[in-house]
Design a protein that fits this description.
This protein is an alpha+beta fold and about 100 residues long. Helix content is about 50%, strand content about 15%. The protein has helices spanning about 40-50, 55-60, 75-104, and strands spanning about 10, 20, 25, 35. A hairpin with a 6-residue loop joins β3 (about 25) and β4. The chain is elongated, with a radius of gyration of 26 Å. The protein starts with 8 loop residues before the first strand and ends with a helix.
């Protein structure tokens, strides 16, 4: 049997602390603990996300129209009806896909 599976502690390779196995995520495939503890893995993932986020996407201003702020009543009603139609069509497509998947 592998010696690693018998140990109840592990050293985090980032913070170098000896921690119990419960402080590490277990890989589902290999069933071995991660090299980083949960706290260090979280910090590592946050740093990676910050580093790899696309600034052109992140800094893009949101240009969504707020229908309730449209002052022209007729235009607002037209936009609301159109939005309702689009949502209805989307729901119908999803229900159709679900029915097809259930029948297969």
């Amino acid at each position: 049997m592998n010696q690693l599976s018998l140990k109840s502690t592990r050293i985090c390779r980032k913070c170098l602390q000896v921690l119990p196995l419960s402080a590490f995520y277990i890989n589902k495939n290999s069933r071995y603990p991660d090299y980083y503890c949960k706290k260090c893995r979280g910090e590592s993932n946050r740093m990676a996300r910050k580093k790899h986020d696309h600034p052109q996407i992140m800094n893009k201003p949101k240009c969504y129209l707020v229908l309730t702020l449209v002052e022209d009543r007729e235009q607002r009603i037209r936009l609301i009806r159109h939005a309702k139609q689009v949502v209805g069509e989307s729901i119908a497509r999803k229900q159709k896909r679900l029915r097809e998947a259930m029948s297969d």
